[in-house]
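Can't attach files on this board, so I'm pasting raw text. These are the components:
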Amino acid sequence: LAKTTQPISMDSYEGQEVNITCSHNNIATNDYITWYQQFPSQGPRFIIQGYKTKVTNEVASLFIPADRKSSTLSLPRVSLSDTAVYYCLVGGGGSARQLTFGSGTQLTVLP
Amino acid sequence: GAVVSQHPSWVICKSGTSVKIECRSLDFQATTMFWYRQFPKQSLMLMATSNEGSKATYEQGVEKDKFLINHASLTLSTLTVTSAHPEDSSFYICSPTGDYNSPLHFGNGTRLTVT
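---
Top answer:
C-alpha cells for the assembled complex are below.
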C-alpha cells in the first residue's frame, strides 16, 4: 500500500490560497490520488481526485507532477470554515484494495 | 449521489454490554464495506473490510470476535462491538463502496463512549 506523508499542520489567513503537498513515493501505476476533508466528529468528505497533471473542480485544484510521487491540493481563498483536517489517499484504481489514511494535515484558517 | 447513512451518531453504554452500529448506502449498492476507527487527534485506522455475503477481513490487531461485522445485503452492513470496554471508546466510521474507480464516501461516524 502506498504510504503518504503530509505536513502535520498549517496555518493560513482568510482569503489566502493554501497549498498542501503530499508525498507518495511508492504510488502504483493504477493508483489514483484522492483528497478528503474532515471536520471534528464527522466522516471524511471527498474533495477532489486525480491521476495525473491537473484537476480542478468548484472547490479545489489538484496538481500532480509527471512522476506522480507527490501531489498538491490547492484551496483558493480559504475561509474560516475551511479549518479542518485534510487527508491525501493513494489507491483505488479499479481494485478493492483498501485505502490507508496518513496522518493528515490540520489546516487552521485565522481571521 | 453516494448517500451514506450511519446510525447511531453517538451512543453511551456500560462496560460489558454490546453495541450495534448500522451503515446504509441509500442510493447505491455497496459490494464492499470498510470500517474505520478514529481515536482523538489521530487519523482513521482501518479495522476491517467486508464483501457482501462473505466473512470480513480484519486488520492486524483487531479482534474479530469482539468486532462482529455483518454485510448481508448490498445496502446494509453492521458493526457490533461486543462486551465493550472503556478502551473501545472511539469514533467509528463506515465507508461503503461499489465502484472501485470512484472516491470513497463515508458515513458521519458513531461516537461510542463506554463507561
